[in-house]
Amino acid sequence: MALDQITILAILAVTIVLFIWGPWRHDMVALASLLACVFTGLIEPGEAFTGFGHPAVVTVACVLILSRGLQNTGAMDALAQKVVPRRGGITLAIAALCALGAAMSGFMNNVGAMALLMPVATDLADRHDVPPGKVLMPLSFGTILGGMTTLIGTPPNLIVSSFRASSGAGSYGMFDFTPVGVVVALVGVVFVSLIGWRLVPARNQAGAGTFDTGTYLTEALVGEKSPSIGKSLAELVKMIGDEDAQVIGLVYNNARVSTAMPGLRVRAGDILVIEAEPEALSSVLSSLGLTLAADPQNEDDAAVDTTALVPETEKPEGDRGDRPPLAEQNMASGAREIVEIDDVEIPPELAADAGAGNQGDTEGKEKGAKKEGDEKRGREKADLALRELVVLPDSYLIGRTAENLRLAGRYEINLLALSRQGRRSVKRLRSTALKGGDALLMMGTEENLSNFAKEQRCVPLAQRDITIPNKEKAYVALIGMALAVAGAAFGLLPAAISFATCVLAFMALKVVPIRSIYEAVDGSVIVLLGALISVAAVMDSTGAADVVAKSMLDNLAQGNPVFALVLILVVTMTLSDFMNNAATAAVMCAIALSAAAQLDVNPDSFLMAVAIGASCAFLTPVGHQNNTLILGPGGFKFGDYWPMGLPMEILVVAVSVPMLLWVWPL
User: Fold this and answer.
1) How many other C-beta atoms lie within 10 A of the C-beta of residue 2?
2) Residue 194, pLDDT score
3) Among 514, 569, 653, 443, which residue's Cα sits nearest to residue 156?
4) What are the distances in angstroms from CA 54 to CA 48, 59, 369, 589?
5) Per 3-state DSSP, what percentage of the chain is helix, strand, and coil (rounded to 5)?
6) HSE on the CB side for 446, CA within 13 Å?
7) pLDDT tens digits along 555-574
8) For 161-198, how does the pLDDT look when each residue is reduced to its tens digit (9 = 90+)?
9) Is residue 256 classed as helix, strand or coil in its secondary structure?
C-alpha cells in the first residue's frame, strides 16, 4: 500500500475507535478526523470545508427545520390521536403506533417523530398496564425503520445518494428507497407488534399514575420535628425496610456521606439521599418525617468540625452529636426553601411543615428574592405540578448541572429527582451532570415546566392533551411539506433547493418563529456530515477504498457477488450499532462502490445495502438517537436491546437481500 493509503486508513481506524469508545462527541471526532487529513496533506486546506456546502448537508438542515414546523403546529399530534386506537388489545395498539411512527419518519426527522409519539406511547402503556419499555422500544424501532423508506427519511440515505452522484450516476430520487424500504419496514413493524414487544425486558411496572422510570435519586430535608432526628443511618434503613426504597447517603456541609458510616446520627436540617420507586416516595417521607427540598442555588456552606463525620460510636464523649445542624446554616442564608406538592400524596403533617416553612419571611433574604417568594406563596397550591421530563440526545442540558442552570431563579422550577438507567450517582443531585436519556422529576407551574421543556429540548413523559395551537399554520405546514416532497420526487427541483424553498416559506409565514429557526438545526449533525463527506472522499481519491474492498472480496466473499452484498450489509449494520449511522454510511459507501466496480456488478445494489444497514441499529442504545432517547424512560440497561434487536437485524437481512436482488438486480 502507498503511504497516503496507510495514512487515511490509520486515521479512519482511530476515528472508528473514538466513535465507539465515546470520549468525545461524534462531531468533535469527525472534525478531528478532517483536520488530521489536512495536517497530513491528504486534503488541501482550501478544500477542507467543501463538504459543508454539499447538498446532503443542506437537505438535512432543511428537513430538521421543517420537522420543527410540523411539531410546533401540532399537526402530527392530532394525527396521532386519530390513528392510535383507544380501544382494543395491546398488540393492535402497538401496531398502529409503530406504523404511524414509521410513516411519519419517512417525511420528517425520525428523532422528532419519536419525541412527538413518546407521550402517546406512555399513555398507551399505562392504559394497558404494561411496562412502558415494551411500548417505547417497538416505537423506537418503528421510527428507525420508517426512515429508510424515502430520500429524506434519514441522513444515511442522503449520504448514499450523494456518493451515487459523485460516481457520475446521478443522485437518487425521493422514492427510490421506497420499494425495499417499505417492505423491510412493514415486516419489521409486524414483527415488533406480534412478537418483538414480548421479548423486551420488563424493567418497570406501569399503572402508577405517572410514567415509571425506575428508581429516582431524591434529596429530602430532615425537619425540626422529624422522628429521624437522633437515629443512626443504620436505624433509618431498618425503618423503611418494607418499602421500595433505601437511604443511600447523607449530605452534610455540602459533602455526601454514604451508609458505609452506619453509626452517623441524623440531625435536624440534614439532607438524606434516598433511592425510591416513585410510588413509594410518599410513604418514605411520612415514615422518616422528611420533606422534599427545593434545589438549592446558592447554598452557603459554613465550616464545620470534621469530627462530625465520624460515626457516633467512635467520637469522643464530649463530641457526640455536637455538629451544627445544616438547617441553621441554610435557613440563615435563606437559600433553601421547603416546597409543597399537590401532585404527590404527601402526608398532612408534612404538608403543614412545608407550608409553615414557606409562610414566614426568612432572615437574610434580599428584598428582590423576598418579594418573589411572597408572590410564589400567594399562588394556589393547585398551580404546582410534578412532571417527568426526559433529556433529548441534542438537549442543551447535556453536560450541565442543576446548580449552574439556576432553575429556581431562571425558570421558577425545581429538580427533585433524577433517574438514569438504574445507575446510582455518587454526587449531589444538584452537581450531577445531565446526560441524554436522563429522566428528571421536576416541580413548578405547568407554564414554567412547559417553557423549560421547550427551551431546553426535553420531552414530557406524562400524557398531555393534544391540541392544534394554530389550525391554519398546521395546514400550511402540511401543504408546504407536501409540495417540497413533490418538487423533489418529480424532479422539478433538486432536493436541497426544494426543501430550502419550503424553509423560506415557513419563515415568511411564521410557521416556525424566526428566532427558533437555527435552534431547530442540530449543529453536531451538520458538523459530522460536512467533515466526514470530505474525509470519505479521500478514501476514494487515494485508492484506500479499493484496497479494503479487495481484501473483503478475496478473503471473505470469495468473489461471490451475493456473498459480497450480504457482507457489506452486515458490516454496515454492525458498525452502525456502535457508531453514528451517518458516519457509518460515509465510511462504507466508498468501500461499497469499489466492491461493485471490482465485481463488475450494479453499484446500486451495494449502495442500497449500505443505506439499509446504516439505518438498522437495533442492538445498542448508542447506535441511533431514538434508542438513546428511550434509555432512561424505559429503565433500560445497555444489554436490554439485543433480545428484540438481534432477531430484528436477522429479519432485516433475510428480507432485504432478496428485495435488493429483485429491485436492484446485480
Assistant:
1) 11
2) 93
3) 569
4) 12, 9, 51, 16
5) 60, 10, 35
6) 9
7) 877 778 999 999 999 999 98
8) 988 988 888 889 889 999 999 999 999 999 999 999 99
9) strand
Contact call for residues 105 and 146 (beta carbons, < 8 A): yes
- pTM, 2 dp: 0.60
Mean pLDDT of the chain: 75
CA atoms within 13 A on the CB side of 371: 2
In this structure, are residues 542 and 10 in contact, taking their beta carbons and an 8 Å threshold? no
The angle subtended at Cα 114 by Cα 154 and Cα 128, nearest 5°, is 145
* DSSP output for 136-204: HHHHHHHHHHHHTTSTTSSHHHHHHHHHHHHTTS-PPPTTTTHHHHHHHHHHHHHHIIIIIHHHS---S
Angstrom CA distances, 334 to 45, 300, 313, 327, 408, stand at 57, 9, 33, 10, 13
Q: How far is CA 493 from the centre of its chain?
A: 34
User: Which of 568, 599, 598 is CA-nearest to residue 584?
Assistant: 568
**What distance in Å separates the CA atoms of residue 530 and residue 524, rounded to the nearest whole number?**
10
Q: What is the pLDDT of residue 517?
A: 81
Contact 581, 623 (CB under 8 A): yes
- Amino acid sitting at position 386: L
| Residue found under cell 398488540 | 91
| Local structure of residue 399 (DSSP, 8 states) | T
Query: d(Cα 437, Cα 390) in Å, to the nearest integer?
Result: 6
Beta bridge partners of 220: 272, 292
Q: What is the 3-state secondary structure (H, E, C) of 300-336?
A: CCCCCCHHHHCCHHHCCHHHCCCCCCHHHHHHHHCCC
pLDDT at 329 over 70: no
- pLDDT tens-digit readout, 58-112: 888 888 888 778 777 766 666 666 777 766 788 998 999 999 999 988 887 777 7
Q: What angle do CA 244, 245, 247 make, to 5 degrees?
A: 165
Instruction: Encode pLDDT of 468-494 as tens digits.
Output: 446 678 888 888 888 988 888 787 888
Residue with cell 445544616: 326
CA–CA dist 296, 415 (Å, integer): 10
First and final C-alpha spacing in the chain: 29
Q: Tell me if 389 sits within 8 A of 439, measured CB to CB.
A: yes
Q: In degrees rounded to 5, what are phi and psi of residue 105?
A: -70, -20
Q: Which of 401, 404, 389, 506 is nearest to 451 (CA)?
A: 389
Query: Strands 245-252 and 255-258, how do they pair?
Result: antiparallel
Torsion sign over Cα 353, 357, 360, 363: positive
CA-CA distance, 8 to 32, in Å (whole number)?
A: 13
Q: How many alpha carbons fall within 13 Å on the CB side of residue 501?
A: 16
Question: How far is the CA of 166 from the CAs of 106, 154, 172, in angstroms?
Answer: 24, 19, 11
Cα separation, 504 vs 523, whole angstroms? 19
- Residue 450 and residue 335: Cα distance in Å, rounded? 25
